[in-house]
């Protein structure tokens, strides 16, 4: 694996070649990664996988025309051919007056923040197999579990670098570790499946395989013998592992691309109340060890924690440089860059601040509702905000979570759902997008 400085040199070298070959401006990304994955099933080793790769992406500008190319052939001759092809493509591309590198005066200069995203401790295939086995064993030990889809463990390391022709060069390294288990409870047509997993940048921060496996087993058993949900209008409570999807719908609606194309249900909502008062949603790229932390964005701009929703008010769009120019605004440091193509937009560690109530208090006045633990399908219209998804979970009766239900649909409109949302106080940072338990009153349920 290359060091970050070596990766940065690779990106800078091809930018230099591009400007020498006639490009007016250029930027390049270099990514190297290596990962090992081990899976077991029913106590036996099922698969061991190892992947390694190095890729480079180049974007060049000739006036207001641009082209992007990528390659995994990093020989000097291949680099020269890549540059020549990219410049030729750009000369024939259509003009785009909004495209271009990020504003030079906004680039990150000086040392980036230290986020401690790379663990110095390696994890051997033998250790991964042991972790996968321990997770599956713990899941299968839960009374009522009858079969297993397997346990898994993985370890990865990666290096990412960006260089531009107008003065930016930066790079950073990350590591990742994960353990998972997926098991089945019950027999025949009554079988139910569920899972648990955990990922972390540092091995020491990973939950124990036994805890992950036990949770998977308990979740599967709890779903046995599901009933039929009653149809009607009622409160819906979202478990954190599915409630995070609501922030995905929010972030998708406030990206620069959605706003410039006028394809967002939040099109005219900047500076207005979108959520209930008291709801705050933040994006924190500087979170130490964060699964989506980063020291700079995909165009070389500095990043910083920001409130996207503050006390219910929508405070900012998510803008890369191209969409910012089109809207007459400044980029917000949310550009995300893959190997191929122009930058897009992405959040980092997005989360909703916890509310004041424990979960028990949040649901204690619900006489008839549903606690949702699984969402199925993609029935969300990003233009209108109409929301309809299949779901599974548990009925709430008299303020208590009582019995599993499955095969029903929950529906509403995201504008109304956001305004009716109440967060509990149980926020835990486990994923890239995190929320506490969420309650939304007035949703429509169609039972099976």
Low-confidence stretches: none
Query: What is the name of the CATH architecture of the largest domain?
Result: 2-Layer Sandwich
Biggest pleated-sheet summary: 6 strands, antiparallel
Span between termini: 52 Å
Order of helices and strands: HEEEHHEEEHEHHEEEHEEEHEEEHEEE
Order of strands in the sheet with the most strands?
3-2-1-4-5-6
SS strand fraction? 35-45%
Q: Helical content, roughly?
A: 10-25%
CATH top level of the largest domain is: Alpha Beta
Question: How many H/I helical runs?
Answer: 9
Count of β-strands: 19
Query: Roughly what is the average pLDDT, rounded to an integer?
Result: 96
* CATH superfamily grouping of the largest domain: PmbA/TldD superfamily
> Given the helix and strand composition, which structural class is it?
alpha+beta
CATH topology of the largest domain: PmbA/TldD fold
> Domains counted in the coordinates: how many?
2
Rg, rounded, reads 24 Å
Which word captures the global form?
globular
Please write out the topology.
Blueprint: H1 4-20, E1 25-41, E2 44-62, E3 65-71, H2 76-92, H3 125-140, E4 145-164, E5 169-185, E6 192-200, H4 209-222, E7 232-238, H5 240-253, H6 256-260, E8 281-283, E9 306-310, E10 313-314, H7 321-327, E11 335-336, E12 344-345, E13 350-352, H8 359-363, E14 368-376, E15 386-397, E16 400-413, H9 414-419, E17 421-423, E18 433-434, E19 438-446
Parallel strand pairs: 7-14, 13-18
Antiparallel strand pairs: 1-2, 1-4, 2-3, 4-5, 5-6, 7-19, 8-9, 8-13, 9-10, 11-12, 14-15, 15-16, 16-19, 17-19
Helix pairs in contact: 3-4
